[in-house]
Design a protein that fits this description.
Helices cover 0% and strands 31% of the residues. The chain has 138 residues and is an all-beta fold. The protein has one domain: Hexapeptide repeat proteins (UDP N-Acetylglucosamine Acyltransferase, domain 1, 3 Solenoid), CATH 2.160.10. The radius of gyration is 14 Å and the shape is globular. The mean pLDDT is 95.
């Protein structure tokens, strides 16, 4: 049983999703089949987190964030889907889009409205469409 889990209806959370303690999921969000969400993570309203996405502990996923799992939809098989990983402490601003197969590093920050098309290193700040480095980690 999860401690202090909150979801604000209406939202759709698949029963196979693995959700940690102290997680909050905003209204009109979808958390897909087998998604993993770590402890103390916050998912903003109207976010779409499909199968194949793993989100670490202490993350912030802003409102209207969209993760994808199929590079060329519709794939004939789920075997063509790619995993996406958002590591501990990462923060994604409102309306960020994340294409499948990328990893967003620990404590990375992604600016609102960005489109993430490649891996983001730990601790860096990225923004834009496509997202580009704004500040490198030290």
């Amino acid at each position: 049983m999860r401690a202090n889990f909150k979801s604000y209806p209406p939202c759709n959370i698949y029963p196979t999703a693995i959700i940690g303690d102290d997680v909050s999921v905003g209204t009109f969000s979808e958390i897909g089949d087998g998604v993993v969400i770590g402890d103390r993570t916050r998912i903003g309203a109207m976010s779409f987190i499909p199968a194949g996405v793993t989100i670490g502990n202490d993350c912030f996923i802003g409102p209207r964030v969209t993760c994808t799992n199929d590079m060329y939809p519709p794939s004939p098989s789920k075997e063509d889907w790619q995993a996406t990983v958002i590591q501990d402490g990462a923060a994604l601003g409102a309306a960020v889009t994340v294409i499948p197969g990328v990893t967003i590093g620990k404590n990375a920050l992604i600016g609102a409205g960005s489109v993430v098309i490649c891996d983001i290193p730990e601790g860096e700040v990225w923004a834009g469409n496509p997202a580009r480095v704004v500040k490198r980690s030290q």
